[in-house]
Amino acid sequence: MKLRILFSFLALLLFASSARAQQAPAAAKASFFTTYDYLTYAIKDLSNGSEPMLARGVGGTLTLRPDGVYQKRLTLAANGTQMRFDQDGRFAFAGDRITFTYTDSKGQPRTDQGTFVLRNGLLILTVQGYPAGNRGIYTLRGK
Q1: Any signal peptide, and if so, which residues (predicted)?
Q2: What number of helices (H) and strands (E) belong to the chain?
Q3: Which of 6, 86, 131, 139 is 20–30 Å from 63 (CA)?
Q4: What does CATH list as the number for 32-142?
């Protein structure tokens, strides 16, 4: 009888720890899906090895939803005005890789690829080839 109770108790502990282990990744991923404020944007010219060039007047938001839909509302200061870069599309990620798929201003499908790091509410996106031959580096803070 004592052996049966011991095995039942061990089975219950194993089940509880298994259920908790399965829930932990979902909780970690859930913090990724939110609205972020753009803090910085820099362009790294890969052809000459120079330091990244910081954009001025960076603002706006990036929303990443659990269903894979994103909404980008980026603003930059240029020539005394605010320039808007609005984009709606789909994103996917695996490991530290992320892709953004959308329709460009000419109606053509486009996919941007890059990497991301999410740490302490800060999201750093590094997007390859935007502008062409360069790398865009965005720093955002989750709301």
Answers
A1: 1-21
A2: 1, 9
A3: 131
A4: 2.40.128.20
Between 18-32, 70-84, 115-129, the lowest mean confidence (pLDDT) is in 18-32
Torsions phi, psi for 107 (to 5 deg): 80, 10
Q: Global pTM?
A: 0.76
Half-sphere exposure of 136 (CA within 13 A, CB side): 16
- Tokens, residue 65: 């939803």
Furthest C-alpha separation in the chain: 82
Long-range contacts, stretch 70-79, CB < 8 angstroms, 24+ apart: 70/100, 72/100, 74/38, 74/41, 75/38, 76/41
Token match 């502008």: residue? Answer: 131
Six-digit token pair at 1?
């009888």
Please state the length of the chain: 143
Give the mean model confidence (pLDDT) for residues 74-79: 94
Domain residue extents for the chain? 1-30, 32-142
State how far the Cα of 87 lies from the Cα of 72, in Å rounded to an integer.
5
